[in-house]
Amino acid sequence: MKKLLFLVLSFFLFIPSSLAEEGNLLAPSAKSAILIEASTGEILYEFNSHEKLAPASMTKMMSLLLIMEAIEKGSITYDTKVMASKNASDMGGSQILLEEGESMSVDDLLKGITIASGNDAVVAMAEAIGGSEANFVAMMNEKVKELGLKDTHFQNSHGLDTENHYSSAYDMAMIARELVRHEKILEYSSIYETYLRTGTDRQTWLVNTNKLVRFKEGVDGLKTGYTENSLYCLTATMKKDGMRVIAVVMGEPSTTTRNAEASSMLDYAFAQYGLQKLLSKDSVVDTISLAKSKKESVAIMPMEDVSILYKKMEKKITPTYEISYGKINSKIEVGEKVGTLTIKDGSKTIRTVDLTVAVPVKKANVLDLLLRYGKNLITGNIHFQGKKD
Questions:
Q1: Is residue 11 situated within a structural domain?
Q2: Which pTM was predicted?
Q3: Among residues 105, 115, 96, 262, which one has the least CA distance to residue 187?
Q4: Does 117 qualify as catalytic in the annotation?
Q5: What Å distances lie between residue 25 and 64, 240, 277, CA to CA?
Q6: For residue 142, what pLDDT band results from cuts at 50, 70 and 90?
Q7: Marked catalytic residue, from 31, 60, 211, 223
């Protein structure tokens, strides 16, 4: 057993870090595959990652992203009751058996989508948010453009095969990356089994279509897919030692192969790479003076946690930082970009991050400026320049 473990570890330690040139070593049965680190978006492995293929129910990741954004905006809540239309209840494929006119909470519908891949559940949510599924699909494609993705076009919210409905492993990974920023979604996708309609004669058992959630420690999502056209697909995500990775495989011949190859990609990521945290969103990187604002100065912070990826067989870098500012207004909201932090390894730029203020800044009025002038005059913070005797 120890000898076998040694051989497995040796494989991951000495496998080439760039595998695209070596062929599809990690997912040899997949039509396409990609592996990324979530916080940086860096690609750790890819094979045919931009090939346009049927994404099947992995389509629902974009639907879920729009649902989570609607919740964040306050358009709906987890307790909002959604009534199923005939269109939703008539959906084929995977479903949670919604009946026309049945009302179900957003919370339960999210369980139905993430755990059981319910086509009826996602259409009900699409109609609730978009007014119609067609409008919701237009929102999905608009989000595709917003994310700068080039290999994707959606025709429905669920992923059943239809003409001109396609995506790629790369685009699926980038959509998944956006989705896991909404950490609440992982509370749903990590559930292996649960029930809907508890306490009624229509109690429904849900079991997760992503078996890695149960059998691989650290895996907490994200979405499976299968149709006759797409074959077996999976977007899996796993967090370990502070690093989250996302693996996508498309066009696999079976669930067993799909799960095994996605699992091997995740293992490769954690054997080869680590995440070096440099700054958090609460790190003060600078303080700037504001002449025409109520506050004379304000702390500057990154808009996101700042981490960099490193190869475990190589020495960690010692980064340097450069800050540049644009035009600074006298009124600034938290989240409003005021500058850019550039992280360098020697002369090489390895990351850029937008900067914002730590607290809201309001514009000073005349009285504020007079009071500040008087205070500075008393404390000696104002210095008059003139001719020296």
A1: no
A2: 0.84
A3: 115
A4: yes
A5: 31, 23, 30
A6: very high
A7: 60
Is residue 363 within 8 Å of 330, Cβ to Cβ?
yes
Give the residue among 55, 252, 245, 62 at the shortest CA–CA distance from 140: 62
60 is catalytic: yes
Residue 143 phi, psi (nearest 5): -65, -35
Q: What is the pLDDT of residues 55-95, one digit of tens each?
A: 999 999 999 999 999 999 999 999 999 999 999 999 999 99
Total domains present in the chain: 2
Catalytic residue among 32, 57, 157, 293: 57
Q: Which of 63, 117, 167, 263 is catalytic?
A: 117
Which of 106, 196, 118, 193 is CA-nearest to residue 157?
Answer: 118
Q: Which domain holds residue 191?
A: 16-275
106-114 and 60-73 helices, crossing angle to 10°: 160
Asked if 55 and 287 touch (Cβ cutoff 8 Å), the reply is no
Active site residue 132: no
Judge if 243 and 287 occupy the same domain. Answer: no
